[in-house]
Amino acid sequence: MSDHAARLTALRAELKERGLDGFIVPLTDEHMSEYVGTYAQRLPWLTNFTGSAGNAAVLQDKASLFIDGRYTIQAAAELDPALYEHHLFENYPLLKWVADNAPEHGVIGYDPELTTIAWVEQAEAALKKKGLKLEAVSTNPIDAIWEDRPAEPLAPALVHTAEHAGKSAEEKRAEIGEKLREEGADAAVITMLDSIAWAFNIRGTDVSNTPVTHAWGILHADGSANLYIAPEKVTDELRVHLGNQVQIEPRNTFYTALAALGGAGRKILADRDTNNAKVFNTLQVSGATIVEGQDPCILPKAVKNPTEQQGSRDAHIRDGAAIAEFLHWIETEAPKGGIDELIAVDKLWACRKKRDLLRDKSFDTISGSGPNGALPHYRVNEASNRPLKNGELYLVDSGGQYLDGTTDITRTVPVGDPTDEMRDRFTRVLKGHIALATTRFPKGTSGMALDAIARRPIWEAGLDYDHGTGHGVGAFLGVHEGPQRIAKGGTSVPLQPGMILSNEPAYYKENAFGIRIENLILVKRVEEDTEREMYEFENLTWAPIDRRLVDTKIMSDTELDWLNRYHTQVYDKIADLVDADTREWLKEATAPIERAA
Questions:
Q1: Could you tell me which residue ranges the Creatinase N-terminal domain spans (predicted)?
Q2: Comparing C-alpha atoms, which of 164, 236, 228 is closest to residue 196?
Q3: Residue pair 36/207 in contact by the 8 Å Cβ criterion
Q4: How far apart are CA 216 and CA 214, in angstroms?
Q5: pLDDT digit string, tens, across residues 421-430
Q6: Directed axis angle between helix 277-286 and helix 117-128, to 10°?
Q7: Which helix (H) or strand (E) segment is 2 a member of?
Q8: How many of the other CB atoms lie within 10 Å of CB of 393?
Q9: Rounded CA gap, 564 and 592, in Å?
Q10: Position 539 pLDDT exceeds 80
Q11: Where are the beta strands (DSSP E) in 324-476?
């Protein structure tokens, strides 16, 4: 029996002992995080699926994983089909699958710390129609069978100084306190790790690639706050930084404190989309008046202040120099042979490590050669690693966490000579990228309204891609940040000056190649006088876009002008930051492109 078969068998035995006919296994932690610490990696431990988004449902006689279109091929490769089915959640949703397959009058367990109250209400209604009961567990059954489960990290919390934050934590909490008073709330429960990091101007190393520390927060209407954090993580520097307005409490007293607030009859703002269900349950049972609303840190965190904006500009210039040195190396060495995806990952990190203020990667590098590049969120390992071969494309999506900004960039390059099909698809993706980069839009426009602009050149060829065109990005925080998003099914949140997003249209040909061109862009107000208040994008990312893949026959003059201006700026901004050999290469890589005859 394989490890994953044994784990599934053990979980079913644990569920049976608890009187449960099934259990829901999400990929998140008690903070509803996208990227989680090793102690919370329950889904990959159980199933062997290593994608960054997914949920599983386990019944006594069958089990299934539910994913989006980015992970179809990956799930097929990583799951044992004798143990798990897998479905696209939009085609066969998890709750429908459970309702279709669970035994009559079955009891389905869930961990209230790993779901939102909105999901619980939806699940209860859906399962009740089929005579099924949803039941919260007091402890996670996977933890009961995971004998070598890693401990929660206890690294010290780090102070994020005003030099890079641009605004003191006291100012932030005073502004939030004012908003709470307007909402009629006495306090707000803050559970998202990046919101806590932002509100208290702290960072940490508890989650790979995301500089956050595990803690809970309660922000009060008078500007004071409680921070619930493991005592081992608290330094003298942190105490001085937080000051007298912040009461530091042990992390394990958080739910007790929530109950006390409820017992005192307080009005507490809680976010249905970010606070876990146990937070809501604790407040409700204790008698609190719940004021439902959005986490008050989310929007001000997304709208970067001038210091954060400038920090991102500076970080991207240093990052672009690292990318240029890497692309020069790839172009020189890959055609000779001997370079594989893992070697490329190590080389890219070596190029980045030389840059000032770097603290970490912003996510695990996507290094996809040939058919692996067709997996949008591919993560190379020893088993999947393949060489960069002549005649194929290589896609690399990577980023850095700098004290002054978070970067995220994708480049696609040919190894040897590209085919006409590759050049056509690449150029269509580039046209979509340029279309979005040059778009102007009126105040009040959401990212959802802009998504089709980037897709049109790809749609015109009867093609598409199964992910959003753009996600929000933090300031030395999460590489994926809300509420802003550019996607077909995105949010209706209007884009505002100061928001940072990615611009990453793409094309993937299964079992052949993938193409993605990604820069980060900053929303800013159009300076000239216009009848309506208009916004546009400022480009933040500076690195060559491979000229060998551009088919000028399907590029307009305006698009070619944009690309040539972009490359001129790339050279001007990063040439002095790269080594001498790369500088010579950069001259050619950014030279103007002439239209083919």
A1: 7-133
A2: 228
A3: yes
A4: 7
A5: 999 999 999 9
A6: 90
A7: none
A8: 28
A9: 5
A10: yes
A11: 358-361, 366-369, 392-398, 400-402, 405-406, 409-415, 441-442, 470-472
Rg (CA), the chain: 25
Q: Rounded to whole angstroms, how far apart are CA atoms 559 and 538? A: 16
Is residue 378 within 8 A of residue 396, CB to CB? The reply is: no
φ, ψ of residue 413 to 5 degrees: the values are -135, 150
- From CA 472, how far away is CA 360, in angstroms rounded? 19
pLDDT tens digits, residue range 56-105?
A: 999 999 999 999 877 887 888 899 999 999 999 889 999 999 999 999 99
Order the strands of the 216-220 sheet from edge to edge. Answer: 246-249, 225-228, 216-220, 187-190, 267-270, 289-292
pTM attached to this predicted model: 0.93
CA distances from 258 to 112, 310, 545 (A): 15, 38, 51
How much is the pLDDT for 1? 58
Identify the structural domains of the chain with CATH numbers, from first to last: 3-145 (3.40.350.10), 158-301 (3.40.350.10), 303-586 (3.90.230.10)
DSSP state of 276: B
Q: In sequence order, what are the residues at sequence separation of 6 or more whose Cβ sits closer than 8 angstroms to the Cβ of residue 421?
A: none
How confident is the model at residue 596, as a pLDDT? 72
Tokens at 476, concatenated: 């030395």
